[in-house]
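Hi R.,

Here's the chain you asked about this morning:
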Amino acid sequence: MPAPAATAPDPEASGPGIPNINPVTGLSTDYLNHFSEALMALEMVRDMPECIDDLRAWVPKTYAEHFAGSRLSQREAIIQTYEAAPRSLRDALDGLADVLNSRLAEARDSAVHHAETGAPDFAPGHTTDYIRPLIGQLTALINGSGSGHAERERSQAAIDAMFR
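And here is the predicted structure, written out as tokens:
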């Protein structure tokens, strides 16, 4: 007897090990963790130098790379839902993520250089002041507050089709 077919997760479901997928955009807020963790390490490294290893280990990742490398059991469905989202929404997300990845990588490199050499070029405050609003914009985009009505309808139809 064949095993029962796996069913896709409910797009509104959230709980332990299940990232929140916004039913309007089809995007998961779990991607925000990628940036928030780097920002937190960057903010803490001056007062807690042992955080430098966490910061050093952080690498820029696209949305798909973040989930492909995760241990989430729904990672493939999350990536498929992203790929089914309207091109304009993905382009906006990817553009913001590119800027965040770039700025955080530059700040990481500066912090690591400072930790290794004591160079005075490390100023996390300026970087974090720039990054926080970008994370806010990405949060709004993932949560659907940046989408128009027609785009939300197309996105919802794509999500519904994915989870049938």
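One quick note: Residues 1-18, 147-164 have pLDDT under 50 and may be disordered.

Cheers,
M.
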